[in-house]
Structures are given as C-alpha cells and as structure tokens.
Specification:
The protein has 147 residues and is mostly helical. Helices cover 76% and strands 0% of the residues.
Length: 147
C-alpha cells in the first residue's frame, strides 16, 4: 500500500466533502487543490480518479450503500458519507486492490476526519459492502485457508 495512494484518498475525501457541502463544480475544487498544492505527496492521478469517479457513479454507489446503512445515504454525516462513497467506489472499480486494504483505508480515513467512533460504523458498512461486491475474492480467500 503506497503512501501516495493513501494521501490521494485523504485529499479525495476532503474534496468530495467540499463538493457535497458547497455544490461547487468538481473542476473548480480540483483547481483549488492544485493551486494550493494540497496534493503534495499524493498520487494526483488516483486523486482525480476517485474525485471524479464517485460523482460519475454516484447513483450506483449510493444504491449499494443504501442496502447496508441504517438511514438514507443523504442523512449520513457528510464526512462519513464521503469516506463510504470513496471506499465503495474502490470496492466496485479497483478489483486489483484487496478488499481488506480498502476497508482499512476507509477506517483510517474515518479516524482521521470523522467523529469519535465513526470508524466503527464505517468498518461495519464497508464489511457488508465487500461481502456483496467482493464475494468471489472473499470465497477464494476462505478456500485457500482451508487448503
């Protein structure tokens, strides 16, 4: 797991949060991040993939999340919502990244930016999402342990 990817996720959570709260255009928010050099130490291409990918697939992501959350997605705390959306995007689209890595990164983002204890909620939801979205990967891991 690379620090540059972790930093890209951190920036993407902040940018997505800003988008959710202000409704500013994605390109304007990205421009602010670039101008203020907030992406130093982050893999810019990964930041862009996450930041532009989540809104592009927002309906599909929220549909997946809505199966596993205890309230409408729009009612989830904005920081937690940004973390859940980014992590769910990765679970759906980044099959080369192990699901446990994505869950761990989501939990760490919640610890970094979220309210006290929010990481437990994030962990529970992402675990359920991964059971659905990564069923093949999880089954293969279980079979390897038995062998």
């Amino acid at each position: 797991m690379s620090l540059a990817k972790t930093n890209a996720r951190k920036c993407a959570v902040q940018a997505l949060y800003q988008w959710q709260m202000t409704g500013e255009t994605l390109s304007r928010i990205e421009m602010n991040f670039l101008e203020e050099e907030l992406l130093k130490g982050a893999r810019k291409s990964y930041f862009s993939e996450l930041f532009f990918g989540v809104p592009k697939q927002l309906n599909a992501i929220d549909e997946v999340l809505s199966e596993f959350v205890d309230r409408p997605v729009e009612k989830i705390d904005p920081v937690e919502r940004a973390v859940l959306r980014i992590s769910t995007y990765e679970l759906i689209n980044r099959l080369e990244t192990p699901y446990k890595v994505i869950i761990n990164e989501g939990v760490n983002l919640a610890k970094c930016f979220g309210a006290d204890g929010s990481h437990k909620y994030i962990n529970g939801v992402l675990d359920k999402v991964s059971q659905k979205e990564r069923a093949v990967e999880i089954k293969a891991k279980l079979q390897n342990k038995k062998a």
